[in-house]
Amino acid sequence: MRVIAGIAVMIAMLVPLIAGAEIYRWKDENGNWQFGDRAPDAQHEAMDVKGPAKLGQDENVQQIHQRLQRLRESEQTRQKQEQQQARQEEQARRRHMVPMCKKARERIKALNRPFVYVDDDGSRRDSLREEAEADIAQTQQWIDENCDDY
User: How far is CA 8 from CA 16, 50, 58, in A?
Assistant: First the structure.
């Protein structure tokens, strides 16, 4: 396996040398065209042979690279827009939640002081400590779930 890899590397190194060499063309005594890197004694003509395009530098590869670059830029723009939209949504959520969180914290303070419950029918009754503690726990749970750091 290493021998094959070594041969492949040697051939790859020789290609530029061959591509840059002068090539000669002539007709032999049978009328067949012959090619070589040395001028024969007979009449011959030099040929201008261009080597193959360098790997990764032809026009198609450059077009693919440009399309890939445009795709990357488009993806980055889309991600920035999504991030900006998420920030705006979070800011709107905060503006909405801040007063509600403030009100919930004030409710907890009020529940820790003596107070009177007013029922739906308008009747008043003293608060029971167990009932107030249940309301405090429920309000605190809502604050923990919804208020983060505001």
Answer: 14, 22, 22
* pTM to 2 decimal places: 0.42
Residue 124 CA to residue 120 CA, distance in Å, equals 10
Q: How far, in Å, CA of 135 to CA of 90, rounded? A: 28
Handedness of CA 127, 133, 139, 142 (dihedral sign): negative
More confident site: 131 or 127? 131
Angle at 137 between CA 134 and CA 143, to 5 degrees: 145
Helix, strand, coil fractions of the chain, as percent rounded to 5: 60, 10, 30
Domain boundaries, the chain: 1-52
